[in-house]
What we know:
Helix content: over 70%
Order of helices and strands: HHH
Shape: rod-shaped
Largest sheet: none
Radius of gyration: 19 Å
Amino acid sequence: LVRAFGPYFAVTGCLKIINDLAVFVGPYMIARITAYIEGSSHEPLTQVYAYTFLMFAGATVQSIAVGQYFFRGFRLGLRMRAGIG
Length: 85
């Protein structure tokens, strides 16, 4: 089973790691934007816009990664079931 499905399983695991890392992008960017709004950060406005874009990009990457993770996981389960039985 490892030889047959190992690489596919490894890519699926990488998608899960990407999703888990993308979860932390949103809160970090919100903290940076909040610091700018409160006045404790002296960053240019263009950088704050970049933070909002990074929030959007992080959420997009997270959505794609988790969707592919579940799709590949279910598909792998069906293939393993067919391979065993």
